[in-house]
Each structure stands twice: as C-alpha cells, then as structure tokens.
C-alpha cells in the first residue's frame, strides 16, 4: 500500500492534480454532448452532411484519446510519487557525485524524458491512426523519428544549459537570486525569439520565399496600405506533416517573417489569403504580441519570486518523500505546487486571447476592402481542419485560445454592417 502525503503541501498538490483532471473531464464531456446532429446553416455549401458527420467523429476520437492520455499520465505520476520515485531517482543520480548543478540538470532532464516517454505512444497513435484515418496525416515514420531526435538535441543543447544557469543563480546569488535569474531568462527568451526563425525553425520546415506574382503583389500592396513593413514572406512545407492549414508571424525586428503553409496557399483565393494576413497584421498593430510577451515575462518573475520563498523547504520535500534538500528538487516540487495558480492564469490568458482575436478580425475587415473574404477563409479552414462548429461554452471558456468560428463570423458580419460601432 502506497503512503499518503499527510502535510499541507502534499494535500494541495494532490487535490489540485485531481481537481484539474476532473474539471478537464467535465469540460470534454460537455463538449461532446454539445455536438449537434444538424449542420449549421452558416456552413451549408462548405460542409456536406458526410463531412460534418466526419468532423464529429473526429472530435469524439481525438477527445477520447486526450482523456485516456491524461488519465494514464496522472495515474503514473501518482504511482511514481507515492512509491518514492522522486527520491529513488535523486539518490541514484547523487551516487555519481557529479556535483549539485550537473545532478540537477540530470534530475530535471530525466523527469522530462520520462514524461515524454509516457506521452510518446499516444502521440504515435494520434499521428498514425487518428490523423491518418481522418485524412490529416502526411508524416512518415522517418520524419516522425527525425523530429523526435531534433527536439531531443535542442533540449540538450539549449535546455540543459538554461537549467544549469538557473540552478547556479539560485545556489550562488543568495535570497535575491530570483531577480538575476528572471532577467537572464527573459533576455534569453527574447534572443531565442529573434534567432528562432533563422536557426531553429528551418530545422523542421523548409522556408521558401513567396514567388513573385498576384499573391505577393496583393500582400505587399496591403501591407504598404496599412504602413506595415514586411521583411519576408515565406511558404513553408506544412504538407510534409499534415493536411491542415495555417499562417503565422514569427520573430521580430529584422527577423520578422510571415509564414504561409503550402496547404493554405493551395486551398484559398488571393483575397482570402490577404484577409488572413490582415488578421495577423492586426495582432501586431494592436500590440497583442507585446502584451502576451509582457504577461509571460511578468508571470515568470512572479514564479521565480515565489520559488525563492520555497527553496529547501523541508515540508515540501517531505510531501514527496525526499531525503535530501536541493535547489533542483525545490524547482520541480514548487512547479507542482504552483499548478493551481498556473491553471487559473491559463484560463485568464485564454479569455484575453479570444478578445485579441476579435480585435484582429475587426482590424482585418476595417482595413481590407474585401472583408467578406475573411469569412470565406474561416469557413474553408473549418472544413479542411474538421473543426468543431458547436463547442460547449464551458469548454470554450476553459481551453479555447480563439473564439468559436460561428461567433467569429457573427462578429465579423456585425463589423461589416456597422463599422462605426
């Protein structure tokens, strides 16, 4: 029989893990129940009945897999915790006598690797069974393995030094260590945003400059019309992995890029593509990117400050049956203790993100003369991605970074009819 954590820290973590899973379960079940048998009139001519039924079947399959994977991960975490796994791993690594920082990097890295190994079978099943069954998957086993190895290499080359630096700060800089640690990680994150489009993202996708022609002329013409400087317009080989469509901005300053999936370019008209890019430019014009970055940096500072209050807290370590105190253990266990705060923050950030999406939509239709094209693009994207057209409001509130497509279209029509409101 496994021991049960008796102190308040263990009770808080256990309650939070169970409560967040239960909330997620309720949210997903309500979302499944909200799916309708009839196709909404807005999408007649875009979805046929067969495609709509297919989208609902895809929702059921992906939701079921997500719930199973979440349940398995939770059960294995509890088994690992209550069987003393955190301490066993710590004692094993301490036996090599590498020193506190290398041991800490290995400890955190080992836990992350275990988490990845648990999720790997579900990722394989989702990619090669569910995504394949519903016509999305274009990932070959070779590409899948290559992506895993590249991700692992980046974790070692980038993640390990970052973890080592954080551990050094909290070991060497005293009670105010959270300040230099916060500053250093913030600076590194901004640097990574700057170099990622040039050095990291091309490891996974090929970026090809958009060819001269009608589409490029239309995009550059629109960008000039709203006085938005473009450093580069690229098409990426999204079809290498999936039939899904997307577009995004990445980087900032001189490294700022517009990236269009080749699947998006092939499936949409020029007006629709410009409308989609107008939406993305709206995010920049409304400073949504800066707001998100500022909130992320602020959250990091609060997290590090609170972490500094829990360093080497004996009760926290007792909750996880740890023999020895350590900075790296404090980091791991505090992150579990911080789960309820992170959960609440994530809901708040989703609300803010949905508001930003509405604002970017309004910018697009108010600056692009053919605003109806954005509606056409959203309708087609919903069809090609088999989107859930009728999600439950609670599920939207808890998990959606974008408003449901029906609500977005409704708002856009209001903007077009009443542009001065």
Could you characterize the architecture of this molecule?
This protein has helices at 8-34, 49-82, 85-94, 100-133, 141-172, 178-200, 214-225, 262-267, 270-285, 288-310, 314-319, 327-337, 339-367, 372-384, 393-399, 405-417, and strands spanning 207-209, 233-236, 247-250, 257-261. The chain is globular and about 65 Å long. The mean pLDDT is 91. The chain has one domain (1-177, 290-420). The protein has a four-stranded mixed sheet with strand order 1-2-4-3. The protein starts with 7 loop residues before the first helix and ends with a helix. Helix 3 packs across helix 4 (100-133) and helix 9 (270-285) crosses helix 14 (372-384). A hairpin with a 6-residue loop joins strand 3 and strand 4 (257-261). The chain is mainly α. The chain has 16 helices and four strands. Residues 30-206 form the CAAX prenyl protease 1 N-terminal domain. Its EC number is 3.4.24.84.
What is the gist of this entry?
Helix 5 packs antiparallel against helix 6.
